[in-house]
Specification:
By secondary structure, this protein is α/β, with parallel strands linked by helices. It is built from twelve helices and 24 strands.
Length: 506
């Protein structure tokens, strides 16, 4: 196959049972490339079909099956070193990332991956808040599915803070950018942040959550993410003879490789009206789909790392313009006042708490603090949006923040230049305080915090982005868990059932 020809593989999202989910996008992309006389040829379109709605099927199973499908169905392309481009939607993004990580990147970096470009549309890279609703409730949401029962195995991965998602994403964050390029893969994220109000479910507010496309948050799609490791200091005795370990110490702050991300205007997650994939019409006269088509073609034309970096900067600027233009959404009414939806930029922090022996800590409270006195009362009004604890891994909890309100924002005005939200100062600092249990007994934990600073605010909270915060606490064990006493010939047996915790083994 000539070097300038592309094979494009489409991979759908979770719960799909019909390849009509791709809408007119495959044909439109092929025709647009030809009309633009771009130096690529989309020779074949393979509409991926995988089973995601059976409970026993997990993401790793799907990626394994994808590996076999590539070997068997694309052998004529890959056998001589040829490569294909992959365009995914929703859960398709994590599926292909898992395949890439599991069979090429993690196993043998010297082995060239047969996929050259990974273009992810609305990918749930860090999961979706909707996944926790459960199979029965989720299957009724029009914003994600259309009458198809979901599979629990896939939902487990998609739940915010899942172990599988954490491992995949922390590996990505802590790698260098050598994964991106001609010897690796060129990854791209294209997502929307608009809500199709006709798909809104009044019983599930996540379907209308700002900063998302009705299913996936922009912050959860974006691969430009951060990892922070906080470790509790060693305990010491204070003047009263009690142990304390007040401080959390920042041991590591890592940022992911700079990755292309673009917010596409006016797009929601699904549906024929606004869905980022299915709303695209086959006709080249469809102006509403042109922005997405241009973005995809821009991604596929990248062949070098400098080109990739240039597109990254270009899409960052274009995302800024889109989010500025879409900041105010007006829902007009005939007999009552207009409703305004202010589309700010949002951030997500996923906390995972365990002790220095590796044991997960499932009972804890995390309090955010701000200001020079590290006071939670100094946090700005309206910054907090949502908190969700992972059902399978209760040591993990996800916080969702209004980044603009946290950092401060100018006054927001409507089309008549009327102020609909006044300016806010925001917080200048951010800190975390944690109380873990058990906090008494033979094995216990001490409360601690990392004081609010501007550095934590700037490095741990990024707009349109997710931060993984790993908190490691000291596991304190009483010496009386195991004691040896000298026994003489005249020593009488005695009960030790009422033994109390004493000094600790630090």
């Amino acid at each position: 196959m000539p070097a300038d020809q592309f094979v494009v593989v489409f991979v759908h999202g979770w719960s799909v049972t019909n390849t009509n989910t791709y809408g007119g996008l495959p044909d439109r992309l092929r025709d647009a490339a030809r009309k633009a006389n771009i130096d690529i040829v989309i020779k074949d379109i393979y509409l991926g079909k995988y089973i995601s709605f059976h409970d026993e099927v997990r993401i790793c199973d799907i990626s394994k099956a994808f590996k076999i499908a590539v070997e068997e169905q694309l052998e004529n392309i890959t056998k001589n070193g040829g490569q294909f481009a992959c365009i995914t939607h929703s859960t398709g993004g994590p599926v292909i990332r898992d395949w890439w990580h599991r069979y090429y990147d993690q196993v043998d970096r010297s082995k060239r991956c047969p996929m050259s470009h990974l273009v992810m549309l609305a990918p749930a890279n860090f999961g979706s808040a909707l996944a926790q609703l459960g199979k029965g409730r989720l299957s009724r949401l029009k914003s994600w599915v259309e009458g198809v029962e979901p599979g629990q195995g896939v939902l487990d991965w998609l739940e915010l803070g899942s172990h599988e998602a954490w491992e995949l994403n922390s590996d990505w964050i802590n790698c260098d950018d050598s994964k991106i390029g001609a010897r690796g893969v060129f990854p791209f994220v294209l997502t929307g942040e608009y809500i199709d109000r006709t798909l809104y479910d009044n019983l599930n507010s996540y379907t209308g959550e700002l900063g998302s496309d009705g299913v996936v948050r922009v912050a959860a799609a974006n691969l430009n993410s951060t990892y922070v490791k906080l470790v509790q200091e060693m305990p010491t005795k204070n003047q009263q003879g009690k142990y304390q370990a007040i401080n959390l110490v920042s041991e590591c702050i890592e940022s992911a490789p700079k990755t292309v991300m673009r917010v596409i205007s006016g797009k929601s997650h699904s549906g024929t009206k606004m869905g980022i994939m299915r709303s695209v019409k086959k006709s080249l006269n469809d102006k509403k789909g042109q922005e997405l088509i241009d973005a995809i073609l821009g991604c596929l034309m990248v062949s070098t790392k400098p080109q990739y970096d240039k597109l990254c900067d270009q899409f960052y600027s274009e995302t800024e313009n889109v989010q500025r233009k879409e900041q105010v959404e007006v829902d007009t009414h005939i007999f009552r006042s207009d409703t305004y939806f202010i589309h700010d930029k949002y951030s997500m922090i996923i906390f995972r708490v365990h002790d220095d022996e590796g044991h997960p800590i499932k009972d804890f409270d995390i309090t955010l603090t701000a200001g020079p006195e590290s006071d939670p009362n100094h946090l700005p009004r309206g910054f907090f949006v949502d908190r969700q604890r992972n059902q399978r891994n209760s040591e993990v909890i996800t916080y969702y923040f209004n980044h603009d309100m946290m950092k401060g924002t100018e006054a927001v005005r409507n089309g008549d230049n009327e102020i609909i939200r006044p300016a806010s100062e925001g917080a200048k600092m951010l800190g975390f305080r944690i109380i873990a249990r058990p906090d008494e007994g033979f094995v216990r934990y001490l409360p601690c915090e990392i004081k609010a600073t501007q550095e934590i605010l700037d490095k741990a909270l990024h707009r349109n982005s997710t931060t993984l915060v790993e908190i490691i606490l000291r596991r304190l064990v009483s010496k009386n868990v195991f004691r040896v006493e000298k026994k003489g010939l005249q020593t009488k047996p005695k009960s030790f059932k009422d033994t109390k915790p004493n000094d600790i083994i630090s």
